[in-house]
Specification:
330 residues, alpha/beta, globular, Rossmann fold, six-stranded parallel beta sheet
Length: 330
Amino acid sequence: MLRPKVLITSSKKTGGVKTFAQALSSALGMLGYECTLVDSARDLLNPRAIRELRQPGVVLISSLGFGVFNIIARTSIFVLHGFPRLDDVGFLRFVKIALASKLFAHWATRVSAISQMTYLANAAFFGIRAHSIIGNPYIPSSTPPNKKTADGIIRAIYVGRLVTVKRVEQVIRGFLLAAEYLPNLHLEIVGSGPEEALLKQLAKHPRITFSGTVPNSVALSKMHQSHIFISLAEGEPFGITFIEALSAGCYLVCPTSGGHLDWVVDYPQVAYVKNIFDSKEVARAILQAAKELGNAQKPLDSNWNLNIAEKYDALIREAVYETSGHIFRW
């Protein structure tokens, strides 16, 4: 029989959920799945869509923004992309997200977490237990890495939201110290957020530039032209930008906690920071990365997306068998 039709909820905004949905759709397509991206609740609220969700040959893969549709869908997989933090969303939103996640997970046929940290946080604090841990797929760039610079500049880059929990202030402070020893070291900060004005005040340095929010394709292109990728978010649920940076041939500077440790430990081109609030330690990691740029790097697993797709395929099979039994098997 044909494989089930898969509906993957996305987002109209540039960000992790949208990138995840696009990448997962492409990855499952390699296995022969027909996938449709849904970025508007209206697309699922009309009678035709509701009837489709009730069919045994349709699987909904939802995230927080669309988790309410798990109660309608005959077969659904709810993906835990992270966990709420009081220091990020405030008390009221923290409670709202926690309760909503618990309900959406309860209504789903299967629940998947994107990392061990995401699984642990949701299980320990909110009583939400995932059936599996499956990392994120990524969107490969068609542009080959171009690290050559006629002027010998070493380009470091940060890509992400400019919010407190992303620790961009620590990135800047560490860079400022490292730049004293490397006059050819430059830092580009890609992204926007509520901390942007304060960070620009801190980063008044001729070798630090802010690029604002850009499309994912532009961010990937910038990574392909950069040598070092820096992110110091100690509570990163997964770190899709680490995957993108590694595929772009960047050396990574990252903390010793976070969801990225599920896989980044398999690669040698990483400088770890144990204490992200120690600017000298951050600077030493950046200098270590710059020093080792000429060393051989282990490329990202070429079967990364295929491996992710196969894990989702197994989860889809479990979910469909539970809700439809022998009615729909392939």
